[in-house]
Description:
- By secondary structure, the chain is of the alpha/beta class.
- Helices cover 22% and strands 33% of the residues.
- Helix 3 links the parallel strand 11 (211-218) and strand 12 (241-249).
- The longest helix is centred in the middle third of the chain and has 18 residues, at 292-309.
- The chain is globular.
Amino acid sequence: MKRKDIGSAVIDRVDYPNKGHFHIEETGERGIVKNTVPGQKVLFRVFKNKNHCLHGHLLEVLEPSPLETREQLCANFGRCGGCLYQTVPYEKQLEIKEEQVQKLLQPVLEEDTVFDGIKASPREFSYRNKMDYSFGNEEIDGPLTCGIHRIRSRYSVLDGSTCVLAHEDLRKISAEIREYCAENNLPFYNKLKHEGYLRYLMMRRSETTGEILLVLAASTQMTHDFTPLADRLQKLSLEGKIVGFFLADDDRYADALIPDELHCLFGQDYFYEYILGLRFKITLFSFFQTNTKGAEVLYETVRSYVRASSEKEKPVIYDLYCGTGTIAQMLAQEAEKVYGIEIIPEAVEAAKHNAEENQLTNCTFYAGDVFETLPEIPERPDYIILDPPREGVHDKALKKIIDYGITSMVYVSCKASSLVTDMEFLKKNGWRIDRWALVDMFPGTQHVETVCLLSRKDK
């Protein structure tokens, strides 16, 4: 087969994170189709043939996998690319993820490395506390939609009110806003022509208080009084309560919500979230884990590993790539001092504020690149937490970390393939994985968090 050819095949296996492998016996051809489930018969279009391996885009699932024993719950399942495993029972989803990561990590594991299993999310559905939707239409000249982009499409927008990962309050709100905008004939912003009005809707909700923040982003090419919408939203029957609604001016060409100016329609620009006894102030654009209850499982796993391996009762801990400092603050009671480094200044300011809110006087946060900022910390670490972005840790930063001479650290990975790359470097420098666990923060999807307790072999 060659580029643009269409073929069908049965998926033999799926490797981390979502690479479905097939083998066509009649022709002997092998290939990969992403976003598939083992056992599915799929229709695909070839987009490249490299090293005698076909790479195809999924066009249609011709026959479901024997693993798919549940009915789909969302009308857009299979079209938005989010819920890859929605039709697979949750226990089987966990088995699939565990098998994929086990296979991937095998080259960097030791014979006596302990696997502590995969930890389920406390909630399988309605767990997302934040949703970012676009305005558009599903088909050209079709009715206004507000929701998620169709997979492999920049322009087709699917209705987000059916998404079973979002909390029901957020589904109701997006439907109400879409209906209001349609009633008032408000046009969406055309990204090709850079013309139009409605751009994005961001919604976030506190799991523990039910408080909700909304940002509706639009261009300045026209104006509209959204006071009637604000009134409608405040009367909406919800489990929680909308505490802030903002209109954002956004005229940038970038396909992302980057407001030029914010206008408050009512309320405040923050709420509080509570995790493991600590309180965190969440503002409109601050980072926070999208699965609050799942984050508790993740952080408790990290904390248990630190407790089990720290050689000092009260160590000096570095939390590198600390984000808004949630892990650092979880460990503050276990530590003499905690230092966090994060490259995003806004996240660092949030970390400082939340440490003050929680009356944690032993937490200090720095804004900057990890490699460049490490020399600024006045104390050497006894223990290090690594929670890097998806691309992992740069070799230069890893080398500096190794040079501290510590004996244990915890690595939290949102992309296991990057973890493997970093572990290959660490193994060459005397490090090993003692224990590890998976935490399923994203049920229904192919994503999973990996937590590893590392030690130096010559300790």
